[in-house]
Amino acid sequence: MVYLTIGCRCLIAVVFLAAAAGKIRNRRAYAAFVAATARFLPTWLPLAVKRVAGTRAGIHGVSAGVLAVELAIPALLAVPAAAPAGFALAAVVLAGFIVAIGAVLARDERIVCACFATSTAPVGPQHLVRNGVLLAAAVSGLALPASSGADPVGALLAVVAAAVGATLLIFTDDLVELFR
C-alpha cells in the first residue's frame, strides 16, 4: 500500500504542476486560461457573487486563486507530513472541476479546456473521466497509510508508473483525438 500512496502523490503532483506550468508559460496561455475561467463561472451563482466574480478584476482573482491552489497541491504532496492536506485540497479542487465541467456540458456550451493551456479541444466527457481518475487517486491517497518505510527500488517504480499515468492524463485530449 505504501507504493500506491507514493504513486498517488506523484500522479497528482505532476498533473497539477503541469497544469499550472502550462497556464503561466506565457501571456497568451494565461490569457486563454483567464478567458476560460470566465466562461466556467456557473450561472447559478448568487447575483452578488456574480457581480464581483464576473468583473475583470474578479475573473483575474478567481484565476489567480485557481493557479495558486494548483501550485500549492504539489508543494503539499512533496512533504510527507503535509501530504494528507495536499490530497484533501486536490480532492476538493477536482470535485469542483467536475461540477464545473458537468455544468458546462449540461448547458451544452462549447468552451475550450484551458486545463494545461495546450489544447484547443472543447470540454467534454473525457475531462470528467480524467478528473474522476484524479479524484479517485486523491481520495485513495487520503485513505491509504503514509508513504514512509518504502524500499527505494519500489518507490522508484511507483514514481515511474505515476509519471507514465500523469503523462497519459495530461495528454487526454490528444489521446481522444488519436482514437476518433
TrEMBL record:
Domain Methylamine utilisation protein MauE: 1-143
Record keyword Transmembrane present: yes
Subcellular localization, as worded in the UniProt entry: Membrane
Keyword RNA-binding assigned: no
A GO CC annotation given for this chain: membrane
UniProt KW keywords: Membrane, Transmembrane, Transmembrane helix
Bilayer-crossing regions: 61-79, 85-106, 127-147, 153-171
Membrane-protein topology: Multi-pass membrane protein
Pfam families cross-referenced by the UniProt entry: MauE
GO biological process, one term: methylamine metabolic process
Highest taxon above the source species: Bacteria
Protein name stated in the entry: Methylamine utilisation protein MauE domain-containing protein
